[in-house]
Amino acid sequence: MDKEKEIARLMPESIRRSRRYSDFFAYPEDRELEELRIVHSLKASLEVTNVAFFDQASTRGRGNDPPDCEALLFDGRRLGVEVTELVDPEAIMAYKNGVLTQWAEWDEDKLINSITQRLKAKDIAKNIKGGPYDTYMVIIHTDEPILNFDYTFPILSDYPFRYYSVIDRAFLLMSYDPKYRCCPYIELNIKN
Fold it and tell me: If you count Cβ atoms within 10 Å of the first and of the last residue's Cβ in the chain, which end, N or C, has fewer?
């Protein structure tokens, strides 16, 4: 425990005062703005890799979701965008209890099962408002320290996420990585 206190003492004040365990994408004052910033982060990263496919993202506003945002595909068709977070609940509880140095462990099974749960929770047609959407996309964002691109890509690049009735495309978006000069992402292999 003394070691943890010493590490916390040496952390920059901004990190110690952080309100959340994983907060790269967090904007606690305005959830709608946070979701829109995540959509813009994915768009910027898609532009860095020359595979952008949408523009003009806007928030739909509380009570009008899901989806959280709308955008236009480059051909003018409508895109619905749902945003969700991948975070370990046990690590959040430890953080809230003052354990600032406990990061979640993520093995292959936990990562795939957690993503599958997030996708299933967002793949409910009766909940979708404001359509019809020509394409429905889910962005799963994460700031989990272990879940960087180099760790997740070998696990997820060929893994088939199957049988979604609503979701056409899905992305795992990670926090900014200076190595890639963007927020790295992986487009998940969605099968309808």
Answer: N
Euclidean distance between CA atoms 14 and 80, whole angstroms: 35
Residue pointed to by tokens 């040496």: 10
CA distance 175 to 46: 14
Helix (H) / strand (E) element for 141: namely strand 135-142
Tokens standing for 95?
């953080």
- Do 137 and 21 touch, CB atoms closer than 8 A? no
- Taking Cα atoms as reference points, which of 35, 99, 86, 57 lies closest to residue 188? 86
Alpha helix (H) ranges present in 17-88? 31-48
pLDDT, one tens digit per residue, over 147-189 is 999 999 999 999 999 889 999 999 999 999 999 999 999 999 9
Contact 79, 72 (CB under 8 A): yes
| Cβ neighbourhood burial of 96 (10 Å; 0-12, 13-18, 19+) | exposed
pLDDT digits (tens, 9 = 90+) for 30-58: 678 889 999 999 999 999 999 999 999 99
The tokens for 175 are 């926090």
Residue type, 76: G
Structure token pair of residue 183: 């927020």
